Amino acid sequence: xxxxxxxxxxxxxxxxxxxxxxxxxxxxxxxxxxxxxxxxxxxxxxxxxxxxxxxxxxxxxxxxxxxxxxxxxxxxxxxxxxxxxxxxxxxxxxxxxxxxxxxxxxxxxxxxxxxxxxxxxxxxxxxxxxxxxxxxxxxxxxxxxxxxxxxxxxxxxxxxxxxxxxxxxxxxxxxxxxxxxxxxxxxxxxxxxxxxxxxxxxxxxxxxxxxxxxxxxxxxxxxxxxxxxxxxxxxxxxxxxxxxxxxxxxxxxxxxxxxxxxxxxxxxxxxxxxxxxxxxxxxxxxxxxxxxxxxxxxxxxxxxxxxxx
Length: 309
Ligand code: APR
Hints:
- It contains 9 helices and 14 strands.
- The protein has helices at residues 13-24, 39-54, 89-110, 123-134, 146-161, 200-211, 213-221, 228-242, 287-308, and strands at residues 5-9, 29-33, 60-63, 74-77, 115-118, 141-143, 168-169, 172-173, 181-182, 188-189, 192-193, 247-256, 262-273, 276-280.
- The termini are far apart.
- The mean pLDDT is 96.
């Protein structure tokens, strides 16, 4: 039986690190694709040359040609531009939409049965572009943001309480931006909600640090943005799908009435397995949480409206 095949588009920081995780876990053969000549080939060869030391037999190589990606089970989209000085949010939105549209069209053309995992920001809007460009059903177009935001929340919870990250659980829903909704009531340490373990002001401080998580890393790095945790998030989704694990993970999916939202990609808990999004995992929200979730969905709607203009 052939090994699974995963294409990672964008051989930058997030893409190369995602490729490394997948290959080194021996999970699938990996094709790294970029528009820059030599970049994916160089990183692919470098990753392949680590294999005898790390010990795995996954095939990994880079290419500028989508023909090499044909028959992929999963395509992870990380290609895009970072926001440059003087570039508005809307400029970035339009530029990355063009990149995502072009790469998804080419990849979907040769891998019509693939599952797309979108990582490029602004995430929720890029999911819309990917869905349109591929023509894939919603089960097979999934955005990686909630896993990252929840991982950040879990990190801060573990630090605050001096416990293992393994015993933390967190749900961060909504759009991947300032309006994201960390659900503290559903965020636990060994099953106990953090709202019962910490005073309200500490819970609020952790929520705020989570919502600001990407910016905190950017401010420290000065150039570039986070990539280890985003790559770990993408890897977790790839693994859940290839191993048909039925993991319950927060992901951006096209909602069709669930959580009171219709026709928008927003982060919600889903069951991830071999078919992609196998189910939206609906949970009860309080009136206050529902308001925050709607507000977050409205922010996504505005970005999608800019793209439609
Ligand atoms: N086709 C293929 N690759 C492209 C294209 C294109 N049309 N346009 C740009 N790229 C490539 C770039 O050449 C670069 O190698 O995408 C890569 C992006 O890599 P980085 O600049 O290192 O960005 P990275 O930190 O990996 O982030 C990628 O993920 O988390 C998000 O916000 C982040 O949107 C960003 C994306």
